[in-house]
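User: Sequence recovery, please. Input:
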């Protein structure tokens, strides 16, 4: 009863007031940039931003990985700038993109200068850069969730919007992360984008499972190896149900799933308890995401070797697909970079 009363007070009293305060703060920040009290800086290189208007769950990291590799293949000397919130995303970017430099820290301007001076970069790729107003950007890529692009339509803390929906009009490209196999979800989202006067070219992005990787190490298995198996899932990401649906789509049964908040710092003890629960349910494999895998403990590895040598930790490795196809997306980016 007490929790319900507190929830009612938050929903109908505190959250709306704090949303107004947050909106007022944004208005002041916009004005300070407009009158140049807060300065914006142009670096002597191309700057491409991947970001969103909402908190988490729009697939920024897979898109940054894809773009960094593709732009490097096109001859650009790419450096990735990431804030490093939660540490897992920055570690994942660093591990997957080597030797492409990944600079971590909240001051993107300072890190941009460092990337130019120390790594000879001529293209900076900003991870989660839509609200990076200090840097003048050549391309703004806005990511949205298909079916729920704005959450409940309110600014934080009442909703999940970081900026008003109208801020989406800054976008040069919009990439919509697929959340449902139903094509009507994409149509519904496009209608809402156009209703908000966001007229940038729109691309849909989804994922295919490329392979399963055993942790620790690099040994791989085909996705079909999950067919008919009982497994547990572990997801410390913004969209755990979608991840679990992906595992089931590979033919696995998932009688046990573990969900924690995004960026959750796992302890060795809780990981051990997860394995023990799996064993009690006659489950010999735990399937998780690449982002979760970088937070697994070395001590946990020792436990598996000594106490559960047959137990497997499997990481789903994904590849993005695009509609229209990736060649059209990359052609659009090439065109924007040539301006």
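Assistant: Recovered sequence (339 residues):
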């Amino acid at each position: 009863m007490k929790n319900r009363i507190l929830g009612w007070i938050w929903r109908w009293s505190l959250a709306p007031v704090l949303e107004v305060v947050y909106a007022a703060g944004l208005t002041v920040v916009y004005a300070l940039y407009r009158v140049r009290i807060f300065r914006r800086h142009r670096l002597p290189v191309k700057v491409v931003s991947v970001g969103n208007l909402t908190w988490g769950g729009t697939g920024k990291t897979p898109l940054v990985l894809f773009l960094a590799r593709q732009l490097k293949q096109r001859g650009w000397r790419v450096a990735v700038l990431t804030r490093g919130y939660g540490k897992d995303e920055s570690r994942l970017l660093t591990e997957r993109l080597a030797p492409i430099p990944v600079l971590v820290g909240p001051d993107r301007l300072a890190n941009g200068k460092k990337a130019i001076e120390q790594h000879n970069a001529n293209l900076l790729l900003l991870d989660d850069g839509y609200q990076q107003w200090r840097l003048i950007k050549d391309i703004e890529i806005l990511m949205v969730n298909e079916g729920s692009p704005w959450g409940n339509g309110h600014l934080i803390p009442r909703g999940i919007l970081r900026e008003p929906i109208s801020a989406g009009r800054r976008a040069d490209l919009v990439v919509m992360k697929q959340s449902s196999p139903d094509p009507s979800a994409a149509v519904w989202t496009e209608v809402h984008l156009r209703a908000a006067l966001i007229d940038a070219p729109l691309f849909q992005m989804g994922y295919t499972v490329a392979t399963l990787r055993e942790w620790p190490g690099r040994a791989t298995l085909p996705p079909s190896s999950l067919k008919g198996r009982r497994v547990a899932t572990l997801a410390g990401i913004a969209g755990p149900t979608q991840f679990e649906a992906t595992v089931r789509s590979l033919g696995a049964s998932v009688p046990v799933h573990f969900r924690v908040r995004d960026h959750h710092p796992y302890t060795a003890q809780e990981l051990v308890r997860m394995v023990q629960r799996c064993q009690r349910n006659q489950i010999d494999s735990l399937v998780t995401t690449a982002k979760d895998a970088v937070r697994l403990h070395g001590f946990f590895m020792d436990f598996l070797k000594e106490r559960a040598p047959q137990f497997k930790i499997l990481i789903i490795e994904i590849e993005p697909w695009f509609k229209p196809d990736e060649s059209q997306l990359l052609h659009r980016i090439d065109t924007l970079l040539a301006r």
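The radius of gyration is 21 Å.
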